[in-house]
Amino acid sequence: MTDTTMSSMADHLGMVATGLEWIVIALELFAIGILLLGVARFATRFVSGDVMHRDAHDRHHQLNHGRLALGRHILAGLEVLIVADLIRTILHLSLANILLLGAIVIIRSFISFMMEYEMKALKND
């Protein structure tokens, strides 16, 4: 089997690479925290609007605010994950990792575009 590694910075950086790997893990955990905070804010708005038996207009308003907050958190979490993936790819540069990073960026960019579109529609509603 042929090794497709172009150049692995991790092999040349030693302890610095280990530190950067920990930074990548910290960024991924931070992104998860952002997503969980978004879910918590959405749940708060949902409970505030739906469970507290408010009128239909107020429930709809609360739900839209919750969806906007969740959308913002999803977008922020995706951006942080892209940064973590970029660092990881640079550390372990290979054709397979570059292709994987490209696919991830395309998928996340599409999700971001669709989320932005939906958030604009919610703001206008």
Description:
By secondary structure, the chain is mostly helical. The protein has helices at 9-13, 15-51, 56-91, 95-124; strands spanning 5-7, 93-94. The protein has four helices and two strands. It has a two-stranded antiparallel ribbon with strand order 1-2.
Number of strands: 2
How many helices? The count is 4
Rounded to an integer in angstroms, the radius of gyration calculated over CA atoms is 20 Å
Low-confidence stretches: none
Distance between the termini: 56 Å
**Structural class based on helices, strands and sheet pairing:** mainly alpha
Strand content: under 5%
Order of helices and strands: EHHHEH
| Percent helix | over 70%
Instruction: Report the average pLDDT across residues.
Output: 83
Strand order of the largest sheet: 1-2
Main β-sheet description = 2 strands, antiparallel
Gross morphology: elongated
Layout of strands and helices, then pairs:
Elements: E1 5-7, H1 9-13, H2 15-51, H3 56-91, E2 93-94, H4 95-124
List keywords for this structure.
elongated; 4 helices; mainly alpha; two-stranded antiparallel ribbon; 125 residues
Give a nutshell description of this structure.
The protein is mainly alpha-helical. The protein contains 4 helices and 2 strands, in the order βαααβα. Strands 1-2 form a two-stranded antiparallel ribbon.
